């Protein structure tokens, strides 16, 4: 079954994770029938926003397997606006990435609302790595305020996934990326039951999570084969307009 | 997806059964046995969830009863040092009943491996000749296990080590030759291979957390790991046989 992985990183992390060049990443993901990967730069997330996004843009120019996710940071709204202007008009950038662990703004702050408002004109989804209930509550408020902005929650929220599933159940512009290292059974079925068949998609978190680990969750989930196809492939294809 | 090893033996080092408060997934004994059958798991170390979440005496009785009924199950006994009363007796009882491994859950139960109660209990477990499986998913967890066990010759299985505290766990493994890593939460690219490189492939023990967790996530992680067929087989069953002192 082919797949699209909507949550992949390139670059170093401060953990014992094997560094992956773009070539390594593509080889690894293709081994699991992943046809396209939405990739963000760890340098942009945790180091240098502009340099990370630019290095990503340069690297994927000749690698059609990858679709770029421009990283933004709510601590730097002006620079984030500039990063969106600079990269989201590129044909191979499919969305925006934000990791709440690397900024100190609440996800219902004026600065964050300004970024989401600006993103609306690009008509591209926002993948958010939410860290905990407080972030989730703020993000839910923002999602409700901008109902036409598609927002994807990475890792279905990790260990606190039931609260994330509940948010996706009540906000139709919120989708769930299944991946991460929390392998609680049967969170994918509960996510699909709550959010519907079109708003759950594969997002491994590679290389922090091996694609085999994320795909194992989909493989074991008690959803129909046609639904697995939606989770692995069709939902991301539709949401990211691939 | 193609899978690298055609024939293999799987012994799952971490399963549970019963009822888990706060979660809906079926983790009954029937669900565990069903998952084992579905994934061709030959044997599994298991523990009653009642022993973790409520009453270790009752849980240990349930675990032993389940293992008597299903010989593919290997009992893991437990005790909760918060209760203190009956903890040491549970160690003696576990050894007398033929248990080979004793599990401790400081993170789930909310106590510290640094506590005197935990250190005395852990040393009693090792003194009884049992292997010990201990939750250590948080920063500082593996180090606390090391301090609690001192320089004993304990066989220890660290459960829940993940990319966030793997660096710490590797340092702990260098200091204690009996430290092993359960693969259940070792999800990242390179994690298993880095352990093999820095601590030895013999320290890796396959565990799924099934049926509370998806079996295939940790299983496929091993299956597609950068290992030889022989190394994969060691991770899937050989290493735990040695860990448990199991001959056949």
List keywords for this structure.
heterodimer, A: 242 residues, alpha/beta, 8-stranded parallel beta sheet, 10 helices, 8 strands, 43% helix, 18% strand, B: 248 residues, TIM Barrel, 11 helices, globular
- What is the CATH topology of chain B? TIM Barrel
The stretches of 5 or more residues of chain B where confidence is low (pLDDT under 50) are none
> Residue ranges of chain A: pLDDT <50 for 5 or more in a row?
none
Main sheet record of chain B: 8 strands, parallel
Counting DSSP E segments of at least 2 residues, the number of strands of chain A comes to 8
Mean pLDDT of chain A: 95
Task: Name the largest protein-protein interface in this structure.
Answer: A-B, 31 and 34 residues
The H-level CATH homologous superfamily of chain B, spelled out, is: Metal-dependent hydrolases
Q: Provide the succession of SSEs of chain B.
A: EHEHHEHEHHEHEHEHEHH
Q: From the alpha carbons, calculate the radius of gyration of chain B and give it in angstroms.
A: 17 Å
CATH class of chain B: Alpha Beta
Plain-language structure description:
The complex is a heterodimer of chains A (242) and B (248). Chain A has helices at 22-30, 42-46, 49-60, 77-87, 110-120, 133-145, 161-170, 187-195, 211-220, 225-239, and strands at 3-10, 34-41, 66-71, 93-99, 126-129, 151-153, 174-178, 200-202. Chain A is an alpha/beta fold. The longest helix of chain A has 15 residues, at 225-239. Chain A starts with a strand and ends with a helix. The model of chain A has no long low-confidence stretch (mean pLDDT 95). By secondary structure, chain B is an alpha/beta fold. Chain B has one domain (10-243): Metal-dependent hydrolases (TIM Barrel), CATH 3.20.20. Helices cover 43% and strands 17% of the residues of chain B. Chain B contains eleven helices and eight strands. Chain B has helices spanning 29-38, 49-53, 56-69, 87-96, 106-109, 116-127, 141-149, 166-175, 191-198, 216-223, 229-244; strands at residues 10-17, 41-48, 73-78, 101-104, 131-135, 156-159, 179-182, 204-205. An eight-stranded parallel sheet of chain B has the order 1-2-3-4-5-6-7-8. In chain B, helix 7 packs parallel to helix 8. The two termini of chain B are 32 Å apart. The model of chain B has no long low-confidence stretch (mean pLDDT 94). The A-B interface holds A 13, 15-18, 20, 28, 31-33, 180-181, 183-186, 190, 206-210, 212-217, 219-221 and B 1, 23-25, 162-164, 166-167, 170, 184-185, 187-191, 193-194, 209-221, 223-224.
